[in-house]
Amino acid sequence: MMLAEDVTLTVTEHGAVLLDQRSGRYWQLNRTGCLIVEELDRTGTIQPALDELQQRFPTSASQVTADAERLVESLVNAKLVTP
User: Fold this and answer.
1) How far is residue 36's CA from residue 44's CA, in Å, rounded to a whole number?
2) Which residues contact 10 (CB under 8 A, 6 or more apart)?
3) Of the candidates 52, 49, 46, the residue with the CA atom closest to the CA atom of residue 76
4) Which of 19, 38, 50, 60 is spaced 20 to 30 A from 5 at the CA atom?
5) Is 25 helix (H, G, I), strand (E, B) or coil?
6) What is the pTM of this model?
7) What residues contact residue 76 under an 8 Å CB cut-off, 6+ apart?
8) Phi/psi of residue 50, nearest 5 degrees
9) Which of helix, strand or coil describes residue 16?
């Protein structure tokens, strides 16, 4: 997976913003969402980001995974990420 061709990612102080240039819509991501999207675009998978987040938040590892998968599903449904 990777960002769709017409989607740009701009990292900000508090996370990132995705711009869908086709529709002009913006999507704001917190730092965790930014980490996930950057890793997804860089490697095609969220696993390295999940590994890092699960180390940061070991008591919430299953919640981290569920939240990350939900984020990716939302991005795919919005056509911001190509499967």
Assistant:
1) 10
2) 16, 17, 19
3) 46
4) 50
5) strand
6) 0.86
7) 1, 83
8) -60, -40
9) strand
